[in-house]
Amino acid sequence: MLRWLFMQLSAIFISLGEQSFTSLLRGISIGKLKTYQLYDRMKARLHLAKLNSENVRKAEPRFWARLGEGDEDFATDLSQAILVSYLDMIKAVLDHLGIPNQDGFFNKDIDGAKYLTDGWQQKTYDKFKDAYPAAVLLFYINHLDWEVSKAEKIFQPHV
């Protein structure tokens, strides 16, 4: 897969800003990481002796620097840890868009782009902005666009 031809996942984090990044990190659910058997993987990927909210908070500047350096493997794992913590939001967004899914997970072989009609990002943001944290919603909209449509630019909502 020639991912370098498109926007990088780390660029989504960077473009949304450091304040959003802080919010995203604070939303990671250690319990969900354990449930989905991501805890040990994330502990190793984050280079933390103990994975807890305090250690994540303290290591935030290091994580931000790694994203700024374009560490795509790190960005991928970190996005997975963030998104698994918000599967209820993901399911709601996918259902709203009509993308077939199984509790927030969709088959990577489906043509998801056909469900993303013109203006879907703003409509999705408007529908869910009062139900979920803005940083997480914006991250997911951009992540979905990146994953499904190979987006080349960051979506920022019109407020």
Give the class from helix and strand content and strand pairing: mainly alpha
Strand content: under 5%
Instruction: Output mean pLDDT.
Output: 92
Number of strands: 0
Q: CA-to-CA gap between the ends?
A: 36 Å
Largest sheet: none
- As a percent range, the share of helical residues equals 55-70%
Global shape: globular
Tell me the Rg in angstroms: 15 Å
Count of discrete domains = 2
The run of helices and strands is HHHHHHHHH
Number of helices: 9
Multimer state: single chain
Could you explain how this protein is built, in words?
With 159 residues, this protein is an all-alpha fold. It folds into two domains: 10-84, no CATH class; 87-149, no CATH class. The chain has nine helices and no strands. The protein has helices spanning 9-16, 18-26, 30-35, 39-45, 53-68, 72-84, 87-97, 120-128, 134-149. Residues 1-5 have low confidence and may be disordered.
Which terms would index this structure?
159 residues, mainly alpha, 2 domains, 9 helices, 60% helix, globular
Write the layout of secondary structure elements.
Blueprint (H helix, E strand, L loop, with lengths): L8 H8 L1 H9 L3 H6 L3 H7 L7 H16 L3 H13 L2 H11 L22 H9 L5 H16 L10
Helix pairs in contact: 1-9, 2-5, 2-9, 8-9
